[in-house]
Design the sequence.
């Protein structure tokens, strides 16, 4: 992952502004606004966590009330505004009203987002002040600053962009996220916008499968945020012919994949990643259960951290997933080399070979169950002492 | 947990012997045998892991074939004999035959157990030699040596004993286990024997509920071993009147509880434990899902490690369990002090108070959902940098 500044350029119809509101560390930008010149078609995927935050509740309501046509998305980092009761919801609504006043639109055309420490209240006056400042500062080239403003434990800003093959539209995306990431749920925060024309319904049809195979197939720690959201907007300033209708969906998927990869690579304390691909356990769902058991197992993740090919831990994780299997039918390959088959370690798969296959940045683990049906893959980080340190000291 | 040598005494009808077989570190005892003077009523709870080890397969078969009447239980540490194919199963069977020859019984009256590194083969000749040596060394007072011989990453041997109130029977138990422990499954290895009279069926009826509320309600890392087993035997050398029939079940539960507590306290890298009690989410099963989401969350466990009362992580874990809830109806108490209610932090629950309630060896976390139905509790360890170190270097 390059550490160089993000090069994102602009999307016609979108201005981006930041402000230092005092929610995260003093002095740094911790607030961002996406301001749309016109009501802009929007689609969203939100967290499935039952303790969803106040801004998630308000964003869902506003997306519905505005018929998927947004004038602004506003985001603060530092505090999640979750577990903050009626006061927290009032704060989220007040910030939408402040944005609406600044932009000359209705409050329900503004969608709020927060990320940071859960169960701490946000000062409503501060949030409204930051909203006004960000609106005043908004400009077309503001994407990289916003990518930095929404960071929490991220060590670097994350962005991706693409231009359609025909040059008719552009697409930009930024994301934050480094921990509390699990394949079964949405993701951390991501904001994507294109100048292509599309309806809210068309965007939703593109976004859901793109999220399913990108943000939903990465795991850092198996935990799921209370504040996750992925937003996709289309200003319609560019054009899209019938001939390249599919290319917008491809571009959305490509940007989601790049952002998901950046989140994984910046996983808290991450020193090594793995991609686990599971097939032939009777159904996609069975394969998913096994892939997630592997991806979330602390013993597999510490093995990955140490670069120690203690392959029996993969058997343990496969076996604990609750999927009925025939031990003799299961195969495990590491880096494309068959390591386990016929119920036992492959005789010519040496310890030395195993160590070499683990001494890479991204370890490929392929697991088959002997059946014809079912496929699932996901990517995950190792578990390091640094992860423990980061999360023990998160608030200090 | 006391570091003093275990004081277990003897159980009439049981001899215990150890041997150094060269499966774990050179020179140390890594094999133990429980030899019963007569066919002894036995009951078992085994792992639910689909990749169960060869000895688990053989032990289940032998328990059935012998109608629950054992002459010996044999255990090696160092290697788990799991993922070892037909050769591994043959090795487990050969060790039973060796024990049967040494004790003058049938092979199906011998139950084998292994614990250690998965997917490494055990030398069958070495295992048979250790079996014979342990049979020759067996003596009534051998329980503490066996508790040491079955250890893997345990830092101390674990044992518990009890005498019935009336003095009519005794009960002894030993266990090993420090990681790969999860409430949804069996446990690590535990071997319990009493001189009370009981049938295999009566023992099974006592053992299952005892395991459910002890070994099955502790979690170190959410992983589940391929080799877990809890054994309970009754030699019948003592006596049991109708008046104290219930006291045997109580004693079994008490020994299981003491051993489960010892396993938790010796959890890999453990510096602090917590007990989470969940009630009022509509059903016991819903409460279990929430308790396990809390107990297995890396973010909750790192918070516990740091002694940092970042209580929002409890909301996150409660919300990700997949149980529908009303945020306003949920309460969280720490150390008996109400910390969260009505959808927000309780105003007079101060940060200082929270820090003090976390600065204890065992943190009590009580969660209620506002309903009348449902109860579940479990205990779990923190996640430390030391856990990562232990499990990265387990084989070296």
Sequence:
């Amino acid at each position: 992952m390059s550490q160089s500044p993000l090069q994102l350029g602009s999307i016609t119809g979108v201005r981006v502004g930041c402000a230092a509101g005092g929610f995260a560390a003093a002095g740094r930008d911790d607030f961002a606004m996406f301001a749309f010149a016109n009501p802009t078609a929007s689609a969203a995927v939100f967290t499935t966590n039952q303790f969803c935050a106040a801004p998630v509740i308000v964003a869902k309501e506003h997306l519905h009330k505005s018929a998927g046509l947004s004038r602004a998305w506003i985001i603060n980092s530092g505090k999640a505004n979750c577990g903050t009761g009626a006061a927290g919801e009032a704060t989220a609504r007040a910030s939408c009203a402040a944005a609406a006043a600044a932009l000359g639109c209705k409050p329900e055309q503004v969608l709020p987002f927060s990320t940071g420490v859960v169960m701490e209240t946000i000062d409503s006056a501060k949030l409204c002040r930051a909203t006004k400042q960000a609106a005043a500062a908004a400009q077309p080239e503001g994407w990289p600053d916003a990518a930095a403003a929404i960071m929490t434990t991220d060590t670097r800003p994350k962005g991706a962009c693409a231009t359609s093959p025909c040059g008719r539209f552009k697409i930009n995306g930024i994301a934050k996220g480094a921990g509390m990431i699990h394949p079964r749920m949405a993701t951390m925060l991501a904001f994507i916008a294109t100048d292509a024309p599309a309806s809210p319904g068309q965007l939703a049809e593109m976004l859901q499968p793109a999220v399913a195979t990108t943000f939903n197939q990465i795991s850092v720690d198996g935990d799921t945020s209370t504040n996750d959201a992925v937003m996709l907007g289309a200003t319609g300033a560019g054009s899209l012919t019938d001939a390249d209708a599919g290319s917008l969906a491809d571009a959305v998927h490509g940007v989601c994949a790049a952002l998901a990869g950046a989140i994984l690579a910046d996983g808290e304390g991450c020193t090594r990643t793995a991609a686990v691909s599971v097939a032939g356990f009777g159904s996609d769902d069975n394969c998913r259960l096994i892939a997630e058991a592997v991806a979330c197992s602390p013993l597999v993740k510490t093995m990955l951290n140490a670069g120690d090919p203690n392959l029996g831990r993969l058997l343990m994780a496969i076996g604990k997933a609750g999927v009925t299997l025939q031990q003799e039918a299961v195969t495990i390959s590491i880096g494309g080399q068959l390591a386990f088959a016929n119920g036992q370690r492959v005789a010519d798969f040496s310890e030395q070979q195993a160590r070499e296959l683990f001494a890479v940045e991204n370890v490929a683990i392929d697991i088959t169950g002997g059946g014809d049906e079912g496929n699932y893959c996901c990517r995950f980080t190792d578990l390091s002492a640094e992860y423990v340190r980061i999360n023990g000291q998160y608030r200090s």
